Amino acid sequence: MSRPLGRAVRVAAAVAALLTVAATTAATPGPLPGSSYAAPGGDVPATASASAPTATAALPEGVVDLPVEFTVDNVNRTRGQCSADGGEYTVRGHLTAPAEVLEADAPAVSLLVHGTNTGEWIWRLDVEGRNYVNELAARGHASVTIDRLGYGSSDIPDGFASCSGAHADIANQVVEQLRGGGYEVDGGEPTAFDTVVMGGHSSGALVAETASVSFGNVDGLLLTGWAAVGITDDTNRRFLSAYQTCLEGGEEHSGPGDPLGYVHFDPTLEDFREGGLGADADPAVLAEVEEHWGRNPCGVMISEPMAILYDLDLVGGIDVPVHLVFGAHDVLRQGVEGYPGLFTSSPDVTSTTLDDAGHFVTVDAGSELLYDTAAAWLERHAPTS
């Protein structure tokens, strides 16, 4: 596996430095920070419950949580250009769903993709009241979460073996297997889903948008903590620091089996906390999140600047319903209010801002509103029948 050339790294780093200007220019006028915005055709609940997380997340009654595996090819057939090694790998995750959904005649599911600096855990944090998949299952909806290639329980190749476009291709392969029932379930039989929505948190939303416009194989997009506009100085500081480390081959390795080419997006644990959660985050959430400060594959990180510019050019071609959720105190994205207006081909665009949340909107203060709006949106666009 060849490492990126110095010239390519310098060019992409320069692109990253320009992203703030490009993203700000692309934004269109929208509602003020802290408000909720809904385009015609979609109403979202305006309030959230006041419950606070206090304990380990418990599986709701009547809900199953099963390990799943997908065999995928690490290739990039998207409309964006970046390289991957073409190898076969296993992507692992979980299916969390009301048992009755899996037995329905026409079941629906959300494939949930995490961002660069998180993992499957962002959708299934082990804190009561802050576990997205449990909360959505309690509201009647099925979810599949995965660790992307190079993260967590999934296969961990050389960090330069894949890229953002390949991760979008892999996500589409998972969608195809969910539709056809061609995946493995530990403790059950695979369900073939009639409707598949793709959700993405942070740059996982970039993966979802790229997959949607490249393959047209999803029925909707649910995007959290993401916009291809409004990139802040905090984002660029973190990215350029990580990029320099990747230029040097990645971080130091803990042992012979430790893979090459990996880097922390947040250089310190303090950066990880402050970049993820707002000031009102529950202490139990903060303590649990701190356990998940992890490294990221360099090949994915260094391909994201061009993937974002590509996304800005093609997001207007996404022709499925879209729901976006922003955190008002997200230090990595600000000035995002106009982003929903870029989905000009979508038949239904809705968005909500969580007033007290930072970047990790799925687990941060006020995330009950996310659970409620996501469930209401799924009832409209991805009902199980």
Automatic annotation (TrEMBL):
<feature type="signal peptide">
    <location>
        <begin position="1"/>
        <end position="26"/>
    </location>
</feature>
<dbReference type="GO" id="GO:0016787">
    <property type="term" value="F:hydrolase activity"/>
</dbReference>
<dbReference type="Pfam" id="PF12697">
    <property type="entry name" value="Abhydrolase_6"/>
</dbReference>
<dbReference type="InterPro" id="IPR029058">
    <property type="entry name" value="AB_hydrolase_fold"/>
</dbReference>
<feature type="domain" description="AB hydrolase-1">
    <location>
        <begin position="111"/>
        <end position="365"/>
    </location>
</feature>
<keyword id="KW-0732">Signal</keyword>
<dbReference type="InterPro" id="IPR000073">
    <property type="entry name" value="AB_hydrolase_1"/>
</dbReference>
<protein>
    <submittedName>
        <fullName>Alpha/beta fold hydrolase</fullName>
    </submittedName>
</protein>
<keyword id="KW-0378">Hydrolase</keyword>
